[in-house]
Amino acid sequence: MPGSAACADEAPLAVPHSLSDLFWSFTRLALQGFGGVLAVVQREMVEKKRWMTREQFVEDWAVAQVMPGPNVVNLSLMIGGRHFGLPGALAALAGMLVAPLVVVLLLAALYGQFANTASAQGALRGMGAVAAGLITATGIKLVVALGKNPMGLRTCAALAVVTFLAIALLRWKLVWVLLCVGGAACLWAYRLLGLRPALDPPNP
Predict the structure, then answer these.
(1) What three-state secondary structure class fits 134?
(2) Given this model, what pLDDT does residue 178 score?
(3) What is the pTM of this model?
(4) Which string of DSSP letters, residue by residue, matches 143-159?
(5) Distances, alpha carbon 198 to alpha carbons 150, 190, 193, in Å
């Protein structure tokens, strides 16, 4: 029912209970993130843990993408630091890196023995297709959150198309896409946010 969905979206957000909760939550998240990390992070942080709304996730993920380093690592630092400061950021970072490091080292040792076999090459191609599907499905799911963006859904969609054309067809370097398209979007959003108080009706 629409009413129950609205109530679920308006329910108060949960918070991590401790540093160990942060560590083990991000450890479980990291061990699920084989290729389609974005899909796993969105499901765990927004739908299961409810540590953030879809709108907050889109905003934080955008910041994590602009910052240097892996996106999901940046996001874990932001979430951990928001709740517990520097110790929380370090606990979330350790959860993201410790267990996957051990798994990757073991897989690397095994992969070195079977890398040239046809079955291994086929498995990698199949995993690549699945990862692309997961990222696409998550992107479609998060489009709803753009409805509350100050620029509006149409402008956000137009920016997405321009970004795709700049990278896929024009072969622009990512830094130029961020500076040109991203910079223009930031300036436009800043202008709209500055105009919003004047456009909002006064409280009775």
Answers:
(1) helix
(2) 85
(3) 0.61
(4) GGGGGGSTT-HHHHHHH
(5) 14, 14, 10
